[in-house]
Structure formats: C-alpha cells, structure tokens
TrEMBL record:
Source organism of the structure: Bradyrhizobium erythrophlei
One term of GO molecular function: UDP-glucose 4-epimerase activity
Catalytic activity, as annotated: UDP-alpha-D-glucose = UDP-alpha-D-galactose
Keyword flag Translocase: no
NCBIfam families registered for this protein in UniProt: galE
Name of the protein this chain belongs to: UDP-glucose 4-epimerase
Keyword list, A-Z: Carbohydrate metabolism, Isomerase, NAD
NAD-dependent epimerase/dehydratase domain location: 3-252
Length: 337
C-alpha cells in the first residue's frame, strides 16, 4: 500500500510526504531535484532522482515498492516563465503527466491525485469561483495544467482509474515546525516577498495596483496554508480508497484577503514596519480570486487547521528566518574557508 509522490522534494510535495509519513503511510518519491531539496524528505523515505515522465523509472518504482496510489506534484509553476517559454511548460506539465499516466495505467495503479490550479479559470465571471465555472486559462501554465486535467479525465474513464484533481488557490505558509517551506530562489509570491522584506532580505515590497474596485483598492486572494493543502490530499486519498468517484475540487479556504491586508499581517506578526511602495498594476493580474469551497467540504473529510492569515504569515516568517540564518551561515563558512 505504498504511495508514490512525484515532486515530493518540492515546496508542496515535501509537506505531503511529511504528512503521509506522520500518518504511518509507506511513501516513495520521484523528484529530479530541479527545484526540490532532498533534505526536505523525512528520514527513511526512498528518493529516486529522475523525471516523473520517465516511464521506465516510474514502472520500476511502482513494481518494486508495491505502489497503489500516485500523487503527482512534479511540474513547473511560474506563470511569467510560462509566457516566455510555453513549450517548457507543455513538456514539464502536460507531456510529463501523459507519460506518468501511461506508466500508471500499464502498471495497474487505479488511484491518482493531481496538482491542478485555479489558473485554469482565467478571469472568473463570478467569485467565489465554483468548479463548474468556464475554464479559460490566461497563461501557458494554466493551459498546460488544464490539458493534463483533460487527459486525466479521459484516461480514468477508459482505464477504470479514479482520480481527484485539486485546483489550488494561493498556496502559502510553511511547515509549523519550520522543517520545510518555500525555498525556490527568485519566487515571486506575495507572502514570500513580504517575509523577505520583514527579514531585511529586500529593502521594500511593491504593491502592484491600488486602483482595483475592491474595498482597499488592492487585489484579493484566497491563501491556503501548505500543510492544510497536504491534508486535503490525504483526505482525497482516503476518499478514493473508500471507492469515491473521480472529482475535480477547488482547494482554498473560500475567504479572500487583500494584498494590503496580507502585508499588514506580516508587519503584525514580525513587528517590523518594512517599507511598502505603491505601484502600477501588474499585467495579467486578476482582481479577485476566491474559491467556492462547498464541493470540497461536502466531498472530503477535511477540516483546515490553519485558516487564519496571521498564522499563515507567522509560519512563512519563521521559515524565512530559518532559511536566512542558514544562508548567512553558509556565507560566513565560505568567507572563512
Ligand atoms: N503582489 C504584489 N507585490 C508582490 C507580489 C505580488 O502586490 O511583490 C500581488 C499580485 O499583484 C497579486 C497578489 O499579490 O495581486 C498575489 O500574487 P502572487 O504572485 O502571490 O500570486 P498569483 O495570485 O498571481 O498567482
């Protein structure tokens, strides 16, 4: 009864592996370490360094470890990068998923959980956004994930597989014990930038647009704590194991906070009054993204634990402080060597 986690050394995947290991599950990871870190994995979890689209590798791991479910995180996630290099995204997200599905079907694995994104919706006609909303992605990133969702749906129908595709809203925060968190160099997520400003790693944070028709003029997002997101995947696994039918579910808290409120939360938890610069809108930004969470709450046995912006900000900050201490230690070590 082993669970294969692709991308298990990455930001979300490593929280998943930790949650599964803590629940006593047998876990095995495939990660090419392009953006992941092997030190994020708990002791004793086997790591195969390679591509989730390498069918021979996947089939070998499935058969050697008795894999019964696959949770697929491996992929590329940076929207502006997908605009510059769309084919990389169709390769890393769409083609990799196709190969992984092929290997999964050939190996007789019948449960699959897929990391999708709210980016499949594009600019929504209504918020909160239900799963039935039209899918009109505005980036190759969103399109590459939507194409993978479609393949998953068709493959599952043809081969007796059951799946849950989770469409993530804004994933944020870090492990409450700061064992892992977002460590990708150059990450542009709002909370990451804000905690970098709070820890003095950047001089200021820019607010992209204060003239939106929202209460304070800045954009609104539905932030979900990465540990709650991992628990949603565990709930999806239990759902599939008890015979649940294939589903596509939004994954957020169903409540939005503005960019300014988010920055204020980081100022509050850090006690540091870092500089904020109000600038023009960022091209391509959607004004308000909030998940309609009725379906996930009705379908999965999932109760979020960290549904509080200051808690998300506190965990993100604690992780950033640890990361910055480690990086300073490395620099001092290099300087004295
Ligand atoms: N944002 C900002 N300053 C930053 C980073 C982000 O004002 O340094 C805003 C961004 O314009 C958007 C929101 O924060 O309105 C969330 O952006 P992020 O890149 O975190 O996620 P997205 O919702 O774009 O996937």
């Amino acid at each position: 009864m082993t669970v294969l986690v692709t991308g298990g050394a990455g930001y979300i995947g490593s929280h998943m592996v930790q949650a599964l290991a803590e629940a006593g599950e047998s876990v095995v990871v495939i990660d090419n370490l392009s953006t992941g870190f092997s030190q994020f994995l708990p002791q004793g979890v086997p790591l195969f360094i390679g591509d989730a689209g390498d069918e021979n590798l996947v089939e070998g791991v499935i058969s050697a470890h008795g894999v019964e479910s696959v949770i697929h995180f491996a992929g590329s996630v940076v929207v502006p990068e997908s605009m510059r290099d769309p084919l990389a995204y169709y390769r890393n997200n769409t083609m990799t998923t196709r190969s992984l599905l092929n290997a999964t079907v050939k190996s007789g694995v019948s449960r699959f959980i897929f990391s999708s994104t709210a980016a499949v919706y594009g600019n929504p006609d209504q918020v909160p956004v239900p799963e039935s909303a039209p899918t009109r992605p505005l980036s190759p990133y969103g399109s590459s994930k939507l194409m993978a969702e479609i393949m998953l749906h068709d493959t599952a129908s043809a081969h007796g597989m059951n799946y849950v595709a989770l469409r993530y809203f804004n994933v944020a925060g870090a492990d409450p014990q700061a064992r892992m968190g977002l460590a990708t160099v150059g990450a542009t997520h709002l909370l990451k930038i804000a905690v970098e400003a709070a820890t003095g790693q950047r001089a200021k944070i820019d607010v992209f647009g204060t003239d939106y028709s929202t209460p304070d003029g800045s954009c609104i997002r539905d932030f979900i704590h990465v540990s709650d997101l991992a628990q949603a995947h565990r709930a999806a696994l239990s759902y599939l194991r008890t015979g649940g039918a294939s589903m596509t579910l939004n994954c957020g808290y169903g409540r939005g906070y503005s960019v300014l409120e988010t920055i204020e939360a980081v100022r509050n938890v850090s006690g540091r009054n870092f500089a904020v610069q109000y600038g023009p809108r960022r091209p391509g930004d959607i004004m308000t993204m909030i998940a309609d969470t009725s379906l996930i709450r009705a379908t999965l046995d999932w109760t979020p634990q960290y549904d509080d912006l200051e808690t998300v900000a506190r965990h993100a900050l604690a992780w950033e402080e640890k990361l910055s201490r480690e990086q300073q230690g490395e620099h001092q070590h290099a300087a004295s060597a």
